[in-house]
Specification:
alpha+beta; single chain; 81 residues; 3 helices; 2 strands
Amino acid sequence: MIYLIISTQVRAEGSNKKFRTIGEIRDEFHRLNMDMKTDLEILTGILKKLKNNKMNNEERVALLVDLEYYVHQVAASSFNH
């Protein structure tokens, strides 16, 4: 499975004419056997996994590194707009 990360941002008025909706893009990627997740969906998934007490320290560190990366992505995206 291939994952494509789409940053969640509010589109400007009138952009619907130029761009497809997130649902249309998801459907197309699904037909191509690819999965698309927004940055916030990935963050939610990481937080759910971190609540699992059955993982070892190495797995927990890897998730925390991923969490740090995505938090910076969201923060940078928000800061630049």
